[in-house]
Amino acid sequence: MSEPRTLGDLKNSPWGEPPLRGRTVRDEIRTNLLARLAGGGLLFPGIVGYEETIIPQLVNALLARHHFILLGLRGQAKSRILRELTGLLDERIPVVRGSEVNDDPFAPISKYAREMLEECGDATPIGWLRRDQRFVEKLATPDVTIADLIGDVDPIKAARGGHLLSDELTMHFGLLPRANRAVFAINELPDLSGKVQVGLFNIMQEGDVQIKGYPVRLPLDVLLAFTANPEDYTARGKIITPLKDRIGSEIITHYPRTVELGMAITAQEAWTARGGARPLDVPPFVLELIERVAFEAREDKRVDKRSGVSQRLPISVLENALSNAERRAAALNEPRIVPRPSDVYAAVPSITGKLELEYEGELQGGDAIARELIRRAAGRTLEPRLQATHLDLLGVVAWFDQGGALKVSNDERAELCLKGFAVVPGLLDAVEALGLATRDDAPVAVAACELVLEALAAEKRISRNEELGYTRARPERPGGHGGAYGKGLGF
């Protein structure tokens, strides 16, 4: 369908007749959403884990034409959900060409558009706005002003045009008027000052606001969507009650409910397409280990629950662990990139920066807590596999209890590391019995051996430290001795 270029052509097109003519942005989203529901299409591509919880609530809010807010901790895909709303908009809509506020040719709200229509009539030029141009996003900060969001009087415009300051043509429009006929999203809503919040709900409810003492009427057509942290979005927090009352739906987001959902999100978001000559082969148990680090952190009492543990943590850890494995493969000229649990330890900097610690955690230090989380995650990863196979690993533990010690460098070739692990009686047999790897595949077998030993260390059945590697669970008595294998740094 060709796009009309004048108002006269627009009147004689489908956009000049109902239902397209006079349709608001919330009606537009509602119509397109109903069509997608009827067609069985994917409502919000890329949003994983909310199919049974958040998405039904969001659909109900949009069908009810509500302004809404997403309440949740960081890293719960709130901003991504808001950006996906553009997929429910029409591909293009007509506007009065040159309008700063996306005026509807059949229902203009600005003086500029009204004068243009009066002067040109059916010859009024028409422009077209793409759906990706109809999303305006603002991060709320305490220094945001009414001028930023709504607008301000521009003395230069007044002087050049010979207008009075009270004339609408002297106004410099802010973000909200420029989001007319679009979706306007504000992240961290409670961070707006009280004065700005008052101006915002006045525009929402009454369509007017006072700028520098001059009343301005702006009957905007906009869908308002907000995000906030639940701790701030309370009567005792920084949100004013009248604005809270005018938001139609309050939707509470959450972290992935299962490790499998978390792994799906991480796999979707992490940068793993490294390219190059060496293929990437990530064992499933390494992916699970990385995801469980985030789950362990969310349950740890030393981590601040009010800040949460972002889903960006496992994403960053996976990317960093892959980089360490990639570095090793390049340095040792190995044919493929296979990350190990020791590579997850190398990704500790991707963990510490994403944990907000309580007082007890600050005393222990982020690095120590991150390493403990990795070890516990290894234990949780192996636990269901042990239960399914009824293995007890007593032979492996007995070797360490009898004085055996093992230290293998993370920067050694897989074949050499596997020889070291083969010294421990029953370790490679256990790896195969657990279905983690076969001894014929040295890189994956090494990763599996590390997982088993990390899990035993998590259960305190053996001991592990950076200097000595893996040893018996309790220090030896004076005069005791133990064997050791390998050289280099512990992993």
Quick recap of the structure?
The protein has 491 residues and is an alpha/beta fold. It has helices at residues 7-11, 25-39, 54-63, 78-84, 111-120, 146-149, 155-161, 175-178, 194-205, 241-245, 259-269, 284-299, 312-332, 341-346, 349-352, 359-364, 366-389, 394-401, 414-422, 427-433, 442-458; strands at residues 68-71, 92-96, 126-130, 135-139, 151-153, 171-173, 182-187, 208-211, 214-217, 222-228, 249-252, 462-465, 469-472. Strands 4-7-10-1-11 form a five-stranded parallel β-sheet. Strands 2-3 form a two-stranded antiparallel sheet.
How would you portray this structure in words?
This protein is α/β, with parallel strands linked by helices and 491 residues long. It has two domains: 7-251, P-loop containing nucleotide triphosphate hydrolases (Rossmann fold); 259-472, no CATH class. 42% of the residues lie in helices and 12% in strands. It is built from 21 helices and 13 strands. The chain has helices at 7-11, 25-39, 54-63, 78-84, 111-120, 146-149, 155-161, 175-178, 194-205, 241-245, 259-269, 284-299, 312-332, 341-346, 349-352, 359-364, 366-389, 394-401, 414-422, 427-433, 442-458, and strands at 68-71, 92-96, 126-130, 135-139, 151-153, 171-173, 182-187, 208-211, 214-217, 222-228, 249-252, 462-465, 469-472. The strands form five sheets. It has a five-stranded parallel sheet with strand order 4-7-10-1-11. Strands 2-3 form a two-stranded antiparallel sheet. A two-stranded antiparallel sheet has the order 5-6. Strand 8 (208-211) and strand 9 (214-217) form a beta hairpin. Helix 11 packs across helix 12 (284-299) and helix 12 packs across helix 17 (366-389). The N and C termini lie far apart (63 Å). 40% of the residues are buried. Mean pLDDT is 89; it is low at 476-491.
